[in-house]
Amino acid sequence: MAGRRxxxxxxxxxxxxxxxxxxxxxxxxALAAEALRLGFDCLGVTAPVVNAERAAAFERFIAAGQHGxxxxxxxxxSRRTDPRTLWAEVRSVIMLGVNYGPDEDPRAxxxxxxxxxxxxxxxxxxxHDVIKKNLKTLARWxxxxxxxxxxxxxxxxxxxxxxxxxxxxxxWQGKHTxxxxxxxxxxxxxxxxxxxxxxxxxxxxxxxxGSCRACLDSCPTAAFPAPxxxxxxxxxxxxxxxxxxxxxxxxxxxxxxxxxxxDDCLAACPWNKFAQEGRDAxxxxxxxxxxxxxxxxxxxxxxxxxxxxxxxxxxxxGRDRFLRNVLIAIGNSGDAALVPAAExxxxxxHPLLRAAAAWALAQLLDEDAFARRAAxALAAETDASVxxxxxxxx
Length: 394
Description:
Radius of gyration: 23 Å
Largest sheet: 4 strands, antiparallel
Strand order of the largest sheet: 1-2-7-4
Distance between the termini: 39 Å
Order of helices and strands: HHEHHHEEHEHEEEHHHEHHHHHHHH
């Protein structure tokens, strides 16, 4: 995906500061230049207030239970809908974006069922670490220049980054609920600097989605009950990352070979034609994670898992949940050569894996072969969830 490289003018825009604040305007231009040097691609400023419509939508999302097991989202929701409850001294929020546009269509791998599809954002180093380091450097620069106080956040605190980024003019929240940028499509990592500087807010970006439904129609599990609404409990990203238990049966076949996250709704966005490949080498995809073999992944023990995913966000879910996902992909592969991999994991110490392996074998073996394998397993299996998988193939 090709596109123009950002410059200071792109970062600053033409609407960021009022003409009657030349000193602030100069400082913001200098901040934008420093941000560009550090690898950021867009910057905007907003007041520490979440748009009332976005705040209400978040509260409805929580009330409907659509956050699933992500209990931290429901904890003290006012901390998310009002940035000042997180830090009372904040006067302005500086929102920054880093482009991580892929160099290929991430959906192409979905047709190669013996290989794994890993979400674009997780193919390189953990963006939290990469961006936060640069964000802290930029914040220290601002403190040195302006003598203000600051706090920095990268998707690790009660900060509603997307509504704030929308208010700061970086883009708009599309129908898939993610931020869409006219310059970078749906491929932006976000970071925030809360500051005591009282800067004029930039003009918010307006919604350019129009009648387009590409993102909604692309979802393999129908996770969008309506435009601009997400039911996380149906989302492949939630199911393969946040969900700690078995993948619900109703979603297993739809997941295909997506073993960590899902890019379908992002990749479907027409605004991606303006995106460019991510510039930061640390955010670039590792070759080993572009299209790894399901057989090789299924063979990972804990030490090998940790070594392969060092500095990767994937490491956080642990080997057992990761291999649960791999087993679902193996079951969907239609590749009989993967039966030995599923057989090995059917004897794993963790019941989560034994259960997923039983389902995978039910998809790959013929009815008689599975019945014989199930009878042998049930003679020794004591875990109720695993026994249920052997008794209910399909």
